[in-house]
Amino acid sequence: MKKIITTPKAPAPIGPYNQAVLSGNTLYTSGQIALNPETGVLILDDIKTETDQVMQNLKAVLEAADMTFEHVIKTSIFISNMDNFTQINEVYGSYFNDETAPARETVQVARLPKDVNVEISMIAVK
User: Distance between CA 99 and CA 73 in Å, rounded?
Assistant: First the structure.
């Protein structure tokens, strides 16, 4: 059985998808971009600020499912420019303990929704 997870503390979906789906003990988040959930404004000041907003959105989704970053077992990071990897990784890494960090892939893509620079999705298990 699946349970739809939603929270007003993360951006509302803009298409036929949900913020996350809980199946058993496994949570699958949709990709998050740097939309401020309160204003709907994209946060694109710089790559670190943008990445932090993405991670805050993911944190809100995890919390809505009664989970934390410690429950995350896999992440997928999509970036528009691999030259931003170091700065994205610095912010991303601040949300995890190195010893228990999840598996991950980071992929440069041609284009992301709303022309953002980074999108991240997660899988978490409770």
Answer: 12
